[in-house]
Amino acid sequence: MTPQSEPPPAASLTYAQYSGWACCWCAKSLLNVIGAVSAGIAHGREGVHVLDVEVYACPDCAPKHNRQGGTQ
After folding, report:
1. Main-chain phi, psi angles of 13, to 5 degrees
2. How far is CA 43 from CA 1, 60, 70, in A?
3. Residue 1 and residue 26: Cα distance in Å, rounded?
4. Distance CA 56, CA 52 (A)
5. What is the arithmetic mean of pLDDT over 4-27?
6. Do residues 63 and 31 touch, judged by C-beta distance below 8 A?
């Protein structure tokens, strides 16, 4: 099994990426995309606040980062 690449840190994400509206790697909007997949957890902290959030990848970026995507 090949290792999966980690999503970017939570602090480096845009509001749309952090909210799950855009791909965490290319920032492409996911609002009208079919086949977006979970890219994992973007980790981060700001003081005592944990910023960890599940982020998503578009169908174009998912295979590049070893994520299974598409519609079967």
Report:
1. -85, 150
2. 23, 23, 25
3. 25
4. 13
5. 94
6. no
Q: In terms of Cα–Cα distance, which of 11, 4, 13, 12 is closest to 40?
A: 4
**Residue 40 forms beta bridges with which residues?**
55
18 or 62: which leads in pLDDT: 18
- pTM for the structure as a whole: 0.84
**2 vs 14: CA distance, rounded Å:** 28
What's the token pair of residue 4? Answer: 């999966």
Contact 61, 37 (CB under 8 A): no
Residue 3 scores a pLDDT above 60: no
- The pLDDT-based confidence of 72 (bands split at 50, 70, 90) is very low
Give the rounded distance of the alpha carbon of 3 from its chain centre.
16
Cα 58 from Cα 36, distance rounded (Å): 5
